[in-house]
């Protein structure tokens, strides 16, 4: 009994998907893990065929790689960035030229331009927004674009001016009380605390409150107390690496971890075993400095 192979007509066009081409001595070639053809006995070789882009399929095996993202892709927009953007708009540069100048995508430039125009202006197109900005900056050089931008952003992620950041850094260096910084900057405590952490001046909200204090009963004070409580419940994780298997154990105090380490390896400073102790909060976050054996520092 002979086996018949039925193929659908292609009407002169190559079907999307896999292209069947007869090979005299080979088998079915299926794509392997590295993209090469893997053979199977049947006298047929399968090779990738061109796909149609409109269908969301690959066009060819040599399709060009998408361009790399700009250098500052997804970075936060700073006050300086916004000033440069407005200057580019005044200079009548195109969106493409602005994106190249600021090392951003064109989509990011368009999204940021939308934040400079108040909703009540009812301007929707990017070219119209750029014209609206040029007109208002020419008519009113003191146009408060920062207020417009901040009105369209959530408070912790507001735009800070250079002068505001200088005052904030001076307050941090001089240990100015957080409520006094609120009065000076006219910015809320949570927003100031968030920006101090974003600038790298504080590691977390607990450090902000330890250094500057906070309004009694406020959300910043409550979050700092909660963080301190979580860290107080931290655990010590002892890890000893041995040739056969590693030993991992948990302890509630540093003294317990050190006692267990001496019991396992003897003198921690003389052992050849690799060991380390780390402190973690209950949810796995880092809860303070740990320490390691000499051989673990390599």
Please characterize this protein's 3D structure.
The structure is a single chain. This protein is an alpha+beta fold and 298 residues long. Helices cover 39% and strands 12% of the residues. The strands form 3 sheets. The protein has a 4-stranded antiparallel sheet, covered by helices on one side. Helix 2 crosses helix 3 and helix 9 packs across helix 10. The longest helix is centred in the middle third of the chain and has 14 residues, at 126-139. Mean pLDDT is 77; it is low at 5-61.
Strand content: 5-15%
Rough shape? elongated
Average pLDDT confidence is: 77
Largest sheet: spatial strand order: 6-5-7-8
Would you tell me the structural class of the helices and strands?
A: alpha+beta
Rg result = 32 Å
State the distance separating the first and last CA atoms: 71 Å
Unreliable residue runs: 5-61
Main beta sheet strand tally, sense and closure: 4 strands, antiparallel
Helical content band: 25-40%
Please give the number of β-strands: 8
Order of helices and strands: EEEEHHHHHHHHHHEEHEE
Tally of helical segments:
11
Question: Can I get a quick summary?
Answer:
The protein is of the alpha+beta class and 298 residues long.
Q: Which descriptors would you attach to this protein?
A:
298 residues, alpha+beta, 4-stranded antiparallel β-sheet, two-stranded antiparallel ribbon
Secondary structure elements and pairings:
Blueprint: E1 18-22, E2 30-31, E3 37-38, E4 44-48, H1 79-90, H2 95-102, H3 106-115, H4 126-139, H5 145-151, H6 162-173, H7 178-185, H8 189-198, H9 205-212, H10 219-232, E5 235-241, E6 247-251, H11 254-265, E7 274-280, E8 291-292
């Amino acid at each position: 009994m002979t086996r018949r192979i039925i193929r659908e007509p292609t009407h002169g066009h190559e079907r999307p998907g896999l292209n069947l081409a007869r090979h005299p001595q080979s088998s079915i070639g299926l794509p392997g893990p590295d993209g090469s053809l893997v053979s199977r006995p049947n006298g047929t070789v399968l090779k990738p065929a061109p796909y149609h882009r409109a269908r969301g399929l690959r066009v060819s095996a040599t399709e060009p790689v998408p361009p790399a993202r700009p250098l500052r892709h997804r970075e936060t927009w700073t006050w300086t960035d916004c000033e440069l953007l407005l200057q580019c708009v005044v200079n009548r540069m195109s969106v493409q030229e602005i994106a190249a100048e600021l090392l951003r995508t064109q989509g990011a430039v368009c999204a940021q331009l939308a934040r400079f125009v108040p909703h009540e202006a009812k301007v929707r197109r990017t070219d119209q927004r750029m014209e609206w900005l040029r007109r208002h900056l020419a008519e009113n050089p003191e146009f408060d674009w920062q207020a417009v931008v901040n009105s369209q952003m959530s408070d912790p992620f507001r735009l800070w001016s250079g002068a505001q950041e200088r005052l904030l850094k001076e307050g941090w260096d001089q240990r100015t009380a957080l409520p006094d910084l609120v009065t000076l900057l006219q910015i809320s405590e949570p927003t100031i605390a968030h920006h101090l952490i974003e600038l790298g001046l504080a590691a977390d909200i607990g450090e902000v409150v330890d250094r500057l204090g906070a309004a009694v009963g406020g959300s910043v004070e409550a979050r700092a107390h909660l963080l301190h409580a979580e860290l107080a419940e931290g655990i010590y994780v002892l890890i000893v690496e041995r040739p056969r298997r590693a030993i991992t154990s948990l302890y509630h105090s540093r003294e317990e971890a050190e006692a267990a380490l001496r019991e396992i390896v003897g003198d921690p400073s003389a052992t050849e075993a690799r060991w380390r102790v780390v402190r973690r909060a209950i949810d796995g976050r880092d809860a303070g400095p740990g320490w390691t054996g000499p051989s673990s520092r390599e």
